Automatic annotation (TrEMBL):
Name of the featured protein: Lycopene cyclase
Comp. bias regions, Gly residues: 401-417
Lineage start: Bacteria, Bacillati, Actinomycetota, Actinomycetes, Kitasatosporales
Organism per entry: Streptomyces alfalfae
InterPro entries: FAD/NAD-bd_sf
Domain of life of the organism encoding this protein: Bacteria
Length: 417
């Protein structure tokens, strides 16, 4: 006999979001199932505090937990030329993981059919008509949890084979300056006045909270991450040369790596075991944004569970979006397309709200064609024609990702972005 109907392994963005939606009051969804949320004990298996960024209209369900919201966004070309626009009716939102966890935990605590279990998970496997989660409590006691369905959000140890694999790697400072420096009304999504690598791209990302407080981040899309000293040097250089910051204090730092790959992520790991979040392909390959896709995926899974349907997670991104991402990643990796001019050109020629919908997979195919014509057509077409003939290869060292990223420059990606 099962201990619960549904077990959710991992209490990051994906696990918490699914547990939250499984007990949400939704008309027509049927009764709330019994849910056990399994979280790792404090330590290396539990992700550190991180920041998620995403865009949506005002009045979102997590708005009460937001750290900041911006209605004006800016991108700077390598020569410093600014592209400023409004994403209306969308807004760019910053959500700290601790605030999200506090909000969702309060909602889960009020639901009697949800319980939480702290354990190191060693194995998730099919068993009989359901599945088993086997692990060890913080006290060292073995524990076995049986459920009809198990949803596993733990990062993969190895990524599936892919034709292209880049890494989005970053380090960010939460800093406070002595003098007013920032315009708290404007968020810098991408500032390309950073030294560009031979292949891929780099940029800075500035999210101001006040005139003296901001998250300032250095990000690269390239083949390998940097050492901490190199990130620190890049951040110091950017802060001094381009932000004009004098004396400042770093109150907290964030660092992470997000695989950017055209790998196919299986969402089913057994008859009764499924992968969700980054492990289930929720991260957008071309940007690293994840949080909004996690919400779409968790809502669909929760609806299926409560309506008695097969709860296999749906694809987080459309086949068309993934195909376009595969072309872009290959074009960047081969050096056929220079990343900084590519993204700058998109923001210069495509209305910001439309471009953000495109990055979130919300545009129609006719809009996608129009956006595609604003890219370097010949190298992109050449890349599209060669992709079907390229083999998919394993990249075992790339399995270490972060669930904290939210998007390009956005401190993630469950991720993350």
């Amino acid at each position: 006999m099962a201990d619960c109907e549904i077990a959710v392994v991992g209490a990051g963005a994906a696990g918490l979001s699914l547990a939250h939606r499984l007990c949400a009051p939704e008309p027509g969804w049927g009764p709330v199932p019994s849910v056990t949320l399994v979280d790792a004990p404090p330590g290396p298996a539990r992700p550190p505090e991180r920041t998620w960024c995403y865009w949506e209209a005002a009045g979102g369900e997590f708005d009460e937990a937001l750290s900041a919201v911006w209605d004006t966004l800016r991108v700077r070309a390598p020569d410093g030329t600014p592209v400023v626009g409004s994403p209306a009716p969308l807004r760019y939102k910053m959500l700290r993981s601790t605030s999200f966890e506090t909000l969702v935990a309060a909602r889960l605590d009020a639901e009697p059919r949800v319980r939480r279990l702290t354990a190191h998970v060693d194995e998730v496997r099919d068993a009989g008509d359901g599945a088993e989660v086997r692990g060890t409590t913080p006290e060292g006691r073995p524990v076995t949890l049986r459920a009809r369905w198990v949803f596993d959000s733990r990062p993969l140890r190895e990524l599936p084979p892919a034709r292209t694999r880049l890494l989005q790697h970053f380090r960010g400072w939460h800093l406070t300056t002595e003098q007013p420096v920032f315009d708290a009304r404007v968020a810098d999504l991408m500032d390309f006045r950073t030294p560009q690598p031979a292949r891929g791209l780099s940029f800075a990302y500035v999210l101001p909270l006040t005139s003296r407080q901001a998250l300032v981040e250095y990000t690269e899309f390239s083949a390998a991450p940097l050492g901490e000293r190199e990130y620190e040097r890049a951040l110091h250089d950017y802060a001094r040369r381009h932000l004009g910051i004098g004396r400042f204090t770093v109150t907290r730092a964030e660092q992470g790596v997000i695989p950017m790959t055209d790998a196919r992520f299986p969402r089913r790991a057994g008859r009764s075991v499924f992968r969700i979040g980054t492990a289930g392909g929720a991260t957008r390959p071309s940007t690293g944004y994840t949080f909004a896709a996690v919400q779409r995926q968790s809502r669909a899974v929760a609806a299926a569970c409560r309506q008695g349907r097969d709860p296999r997670p749906p694809p987080a991104h459309s086949a068309r979006s993934l195909a376009m991402d595969a072309v872009l990643l290959r074009a960047l990796d081969t050096g056929r397309v220079a990343g900084a001019p590519f993204f700058t050109g998109l923001f210069q020629h495509v209305p910001m709200a439309r471009l953000l919908r495109f990055l979130d997979g919300g545009t129609r195919w006719t809009e996608d064609i129009g956006i595609g014509l604003r890219t370097p057509v010949r190298p992109m077409l050449r890349t599209a024609l060669e992709l079907p003939w390229l083999p998919r290869r394993a990249h075992p060292e790339a399995g270490r990702g972060t669930a904290g990223r939210s998007g390009p420059g956005g401190p993630n990606g469950e991720t993350p972005r």
